[in-house]
Amino acid sequence: MIKRSLLAVAIATLSIQSVQAAPFLPMDARGLAMGSTGVASAQRAHAPAYNPSLLSQASEDDDFALLFPQIGVNLADEGELIDEAELISDEIFPAFENAIEGSGLSSGLDANLDTLTTRISQLETAIGTGDAAQIATANTNLKSALGDVDDDLVVTQSSISDLTKSLDNISGSPLSARLGVGGALAIPSKKFAAAISFSGTANVSARVNFTDSDLGLLNSYVPAAQGYIDAADDVSTGIDDATADNTITPTEALNLQSAVDNLQTYEYTSPNGTSIFSNGALTDDASDANLTSTAEVVAVAIVDLGVSLSREFDFSGEKVAIGLTPKLQKITTYHYADEVDGFDEVDEDDLEDSKEDYSKVNLDIGASYRFGSEGNWVAGLVGKNLLGGEFDYADVLVTPKDSNGNPDPLQPAYTIDGGSVKLNPQFRAGLSYQSSWVNVAVDLDLTENDPIAFENPTQYAAIGAEFDLFSTLQLRAGYRTNMSASNSDMVSVGFGLSPFGVHLDIAAMANPSDPEKEAGVALETGFYF
């Protein structure tokens, strides 16, 4: 039957048709712990990632800051694909295999169908003798085999129903991951501030697509076997009628022989064209079915190298900081595809062959305004990737494979079209209250950001707080919700240690209703002077 390993491999495969803008989600530990806020609350070396104008909102005592390294990872399983796939791999598919191939408790549908075929051949031989007693005995053995297969069909139907239901559940369910690394060197100032920053993000979006033809194939086994059983049962009933008086006429024997001949030529073909029964027996193609579902892999990596410049300006007595970050971007796309059947692992050479590299100049611009009687309030606004950009990923050639994972010479290769990555502008506003011991921040995406691929679009609203104890220990917590999707709330916590200007920050976040739905962690070290 269909290999169990294929389903295990399929849960880790990625499929994509068009890639859009990534979410506004810097992977720094401080901001992540505070609900992913920062447009009005980021400090010094964190400013380039959120709002470059904040470089000019630092206090007069602040000197340069070095942040390196930043490491963060986020995994979102919106449709709980991983849990469902593990259930398929560990329980549902083994039950399906046992129903077809047998286990310690039963022979299985495949073996009992072979026994039924043998009993039909024995019946044909008995009919040829014309002996009513031999025919009746052979018919009794046939009925016993029919009963065994009937029992198998109940178990097989249940296991197939569970399997197709689970396949429907995971088909199209998005699985996304985001890995980020970065660092920055910042020199804050009211008059002229500057920073050099770099960041790298790898964005992955995943789903498994099982075709209707594959689901139709799975749903064909029981109807095919049931049709065979019904035909055999009709022959058995005819024998009972013919031998009721313990005799059989030549005409009756001829009619029974014709019925058995028809049974031995029984045919059944699934909707996808796979022959399930041929010449009254389960075919090799049915025993080792060829799945037509494909798995695609698309990865998008974006590396930014930016120089942030900021200055505070006086507008009619109101001081507003304006900052900009021109940056050089390198965007790399990968595209890989293979059929699920015969798929063992990603061919690194094929993946490398699909790589497309692009270079792009882009621009972030931000503004911030400090207000209040003591200047504790800060309002911020930022636009990122204002020059946009669109980048293609290559077509990919899919080579069908046989059950051993080797190219199938009987199946022609075909192409899955590539697509494009759009790096769209993003806009976010923020408000924060800052004092010597507390920092409270609120951020709001002003536009909806399209997903990388199949996951939900994002438009985040976030709130976070930081409590600074003796300028040595920082405790942080936050909350973030996606206004474009339901049940996508995130809570976050973290802490920082900053003795003598050396900073170590750790953060974690998770969906409060189901941590397996989405979770992330981040770690960074830095030096503030």
UniProtKB/TrEMBL annotation:
A Pfam family annotated for this UniProt entry: TraF_2
Family annotation (Gene3D superfamilies): Outer membrane protein transport protein (OMPP1/FadL/TodX)
Keywords per UniProt: Signal
Signal peptide annotation: 1-21
Alphabetized InterPro entries for the sequence: Put_conjugal_transfer (IPR032811)
Name of the protein: Conjugal transfer protein TraF
Native species: Thalassolituus pacificus
Lineage, broadest ranks: Bacteria, Pseudomonadati, Pseudomonadota, Gammaproteobacteria, Oceanospirillales
